Amino acid sequence: MEQETKEQVIIPVDKAKIKHIWTVTLYLFLITAGEFAIAFTLETSLIKTVIFIAMTIVKAYYIMSEFMHLGHETKGLKMSIMLPLIFVVWLIGALLIQGDAIYTAIFGG
After folding, report:
1. Is residue 8 helix, strand or coil?
2. In three state form, how does the secondary structure of 36-65 look?
3. CA-CA distance, 23 to 15, in Å (whole number)?
4. Distance between CA 85 and CA 60 in Å, rounded?
5. pLDDT tens digits, 18-50
6. The whole model's pTM is what?
7. Torsions phi, psi of 74, nearest 5?
């Protein structure tokens, strides 16, 4: 009876990829720290909301691009994910605007 030996090939660490992951993680940390700073220093206003939405979109981009590996895919796959997302965001905005208009019409704002 023959005995099989399985050899394991050890691939050296790709330091450039690890550095890139840590760089993206640092960006996400800095954006989150900025969100916390804004949350505790600015009064509630439209500009604060706009800043939060912009920072959230940037964080979502980095997360989807790097950690979900969407940044390394073809344009067709990116569009198949991003276009429905844009329509969902548009739908939420339209529902909020219409809901406010109906509430104002019924209860007199």
Report:
1. coil
2. HHHHHHCCCCHHHHHHHHHHHHHHHHHHHH
3. 12
4. 12
5. 898 899 899 999 999 999 999 899 898 889 988
6. 0.62
7. -75, 165
Provide the token pair at 9.
Answer: 């090939």
- Burial, 53: exposed, middle or buried (Cβ in 10 Å; 0-12, 13-18, 19+)? exposed
**Residues contacting residue 78 through CB under 8 Å, at least 6 positions apart:** 70
Which residue in the block uniquely carries the two structure tokens 């920072």?
A: 55
Which two tokens mark 28? Answer: 């996400």
Choose among 94, 91, 68: nearest CA to 81.
68
For the chain, domain boundaries: 14-72, 74-109
End-to-end CA distance of the chain: 86
pLDDT at 84 over 80: yes
